[in-house]
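EI: anyone free to look at a 407-residue chain?
SC: sure, send it
EI:
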Amino acid sequence: MMGFTSQLKTGFVRLLLSMVFLAGAAAGARSQDAGGGPLPYELVRSLQSLQEQVAQGNSHATVAQRSLLARMDVRFIQMSPDVWQDPRNARAAVIHLLSGGHPDVMRYLLTLDPAPVIDRKLMEASLAYIEGREDEMRDLLEDIDPLDLPSGLGGHVALVKAASYLRSDPARARELLQVASLLMPGTLVEEAALRREVFVAGIMGDVDHFRVLSTRYLRRFSNSIYAGDFRRRFALAIDTLGFVKSEDKFALIVPVLHEFDADSRRGLYMRLARSALLAGHLNVARKSTEEAMILAVEGTREREILKVYSAATRLEPEMISENRDLLWSIDKSALSYEDLALLDGVYTVLNSVRHFPEPPDNVIGEFNVASNIADPEDLSWVTPDMNLAERLLRRTEKSLEAMGEEE
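SC: here you go
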């Protein structure tokens, strides 16, 4: 309770400081429009200050950001057209839209004469991006290098420009995302760029880059209100990058998993355990299950599922009794339909270990081959144990024959 109260006080202090900052900017600004108040570029500075707090997980800053954006939507349209002849204000209009501002503001600014003092392509591209016209946005930004722009605008442009290359040219998208992070470190732009780079690394199959980026994100932005999206992208990527295929590859992801909080780590280990189990990589499945079991609470649905995974990874004959007791302890009412199907499969395999397997078709008894096999040369049904038994029988016959001759 004390921890929660402390966090709450901290959040209110941050929000209060943001409001004081905004009020100070409003009081001290030398306004060029008839209505008075802060100028667009000053409002954008306040917005970016709030967004830095959002990237660090301040939920109060999220509310304040929405309120400020709504205020900017109204103020920008009310301002004198002369305001937009200052390049700082014109750039602020693009940043405002790319930060969540209403597109009607940009539509209005595009009708002004004289036009705002900024490359019109940037205005049109930002509107195209918000409206989902990705191809048009990419064409408009084709010849615009984010590094040639002031960092506050260049970071945003690099971020949205990368979006158009995520599928068609992941390497180009990665370059642009790196530029966005470079231009606006510690901001919500860098946070978004890192999240998307994780997705790109998964597409490209770049395991090393994926691990480095994931660790960097978790150490810098683990409290971001968008961290849930990162966890989702991370989970999808660990499936596609094949960390369950071998123990060596699994070992690469373990240090990254330990950067997550306990709840997330448990879920990821369970995901890896199931994937490894279904793919037949039992050593990886066993290790993942053991790690998840440490974090699972007794009596929960997750604990019951992990019992199934645990039994499935140790079906050796010497473990039959222990597995039997473990399986009988499972609360089936806690399992889903898919989990119950997996449990049935484990029971089937366990029972096959406990009993001698049924003979193949067209086999008389357990060892003798029937004379009516369709293809006598087809020995695919013969097991290594049967071959060994055949060799031992022949060796025994020869020894008996030799003993008879000596007598």
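EI: Confidence is low (pLDDT under 50) at residues 1-34, 365-374.
SC: 👍
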